[in-house]
Amino acid sequence: MGVVLLFGALAYFSYSAFQGSTVYYFTVSEVLSQADANEGITVRVSGKLLRESFHRESGSTIARFTIVDDTQELMASYDGVLPDLFFNERSAIVLEGVYGQNRVFAANNVIVKCPSKYESEEAYSSSA
Which residue of 43, 81, 95, 96 sits 20 to 30 Å from the alpha carbon of 22, by its own alpha carbon? Predict the structure, then answer.
């Protein structure tokens, strides 16, 4: 009986731990289509940097930029140091923050995912 209880407790704690580590995020289009529902709520959104949109005033840590998916664009801002691969055109950017009334996504965390390290060099050169 004790062994069954022990395995049951271990299974429950394992399930709880993995549920908490799951990371969900929206696409740019999803955030914009649910703008009213997401307003003021912390969410994660994934997109690619629209390179020419990036702006940071000299001496400032506040960056303003736009991320895009296949169909839509989302203006965003972030106060802080950006990850090294932020400007890599193949990197997927995940922003964690709040979509505000001003229609700007105020990010408090920036995560850069670089799928290129999982692609072969041939796939790299043929897609360029």
Answer: 81
Q: pTM of the prediction?
A: 0.70
Tokens of 105: 């996504």
Three-state secondary-structure class, residue 107: strand
Rounded-to-integer distance, Cα 74 and Cα 63, Å: 14
| Overall residue count recorded for the chain in this entry | 128
Q: Is it the case that residue 22 has pLDDT exceeding 60? A: no
In which residue are the tokens 């997927």 written? Answer: 92
| pLDDT, mean of residues 99-122 | 77
23-127: CATH, from 2.40.50.140, 1.10.10.10, 3.10.180.10, 3.40.50.1110:
2.40.50.140
Angle, vertex CA 99, rays to CA 95 and CA 101, nearest 5: 155
Helix (H) or strand (E) holding 19: helix 2-20
At 127, which helix (H) or strand (E)?
A: helix 121-127
